Amino acid sequence: MKTKVFLKTVALSAVILFGSIAASAANKNNLIYNSEERDGVMVGQTVYKMDGGALANYMKYSYKYDDQKRMTESETMKWNSTKNAWENDLRVCYAYQGKSLTTTYYKWNSKQKAYVLVPDMTVTMDNPNL
Question: Does residue 68 sit in helix, strand or coil?
Fold first, then answer.
């Protein structure tokens, strides 16, 4: 009886070990995601990168929604390891009108300390699911 329990424990440990190795191998960029959810929607996500044996800050995302739980804004920040701080990178705004969705992109300008519109990336499309 004790031998069977021991063998099952060893077999389960081996499966878990090989599963974690396979998952690690599949994640070629060594990125680890930590999502934050509120009221059933994702409001933020921090991405860490494996640096040796430790996790290092990499990217940070935050999301805003309207009263219908449609995303209205997403903001991306990058980690600056020299300054040891998060820095703004990109903001995308989503506007809904009927069956149309307009996506507007803004890139952070560090000299102006503000987001600047990138008109070439602004897109309006029909969404039949709306």
Answer: coil
